[in-house]
Amino acid sequence: MSYIENGNSNVNFMCSDDKANIFLIGDSIRLGYCETVKKSLSDKAEVFYIDENCRNSQYVITSLNGWQGKFDHPEKIDIVQFNCGHWDVAHWSGAQESLTGKEEYAKNIRLIIFLLKKYFVNAKLIFATTTPMNPNGSLGINPRTTKEIDEYNCIAIETVKSEGVLINDLNAFVRDWDSGKYDDYCHFTKEAFQCLGEYVAKLLESYL
Questions:
Q1: Tens of pLDDT along the chain (208 residues)?
Q2: Number of C-alpha atoms within 13 angstroms, CB side, residue 7?
């Protein structure tokens, strides 16, 4: 039986030679805006993303090798924007502690950066901050608060800056959105996600 580690026998991301190549990594917030980013940058860049929720920092760490194996030429990726936060901060099923402790979160972010630099050797790295919770106070089945998200964002920002990684402050962009922009405790409406995607596309374009 033949076997190639991490799915490298199933390459399905074909990098462009004529346009920039961008890879988006992130949770359900990224899932909500990635299609808008792809459409907005279609004449300037190929935008790639995994069709799944990239969940928490541990999941990103353990998945990155397989994800890079989906690219025919990972060295052609110009930008990787990544995020993990909502799952890490969450108190899973109401547990007392967050899924990922703060010290572990910082360590995991640093490891993600190390792996991204290893797998996408020519890519500019951008960390997207975690967006706030619905201001109406709803917390979801795996609760977390905006205050906690702010604390984890501070940890991430300090860590990525020390590694020379750029920051896309999604949290600041949506900070003043009212509950009408939210579809539930943390996800946005279709129209709000489109607005967020247009913002992300504009920022990414500025780095091309």
A1: 222 334 444 679 999 999 999 999 999 999 999 999 999 999 999 999 999 999 999 999 999 999 999 999 999 999 999 999 999 999 999 999 999 999 999 999 999 999 999 999 999 999 999 999 999 999 999 999 999 999 999 999 999 999 999 999 999 999 999 999 999 999 999 999 999 999 999 999 999 9
A2: 13
**Closest listed residue to residue 132, CA positions, set 188, 203, 60:** 188
Q: What is the CATH number of domain 19-206?
A: 3.40.50.1110
**Residue-range domain boundaries for the chain:** 19-206
Residue type, 99: L
Q: Which tokens hold the place of 13?
A: 């991301």
pTM of whole model > 0.85? yes
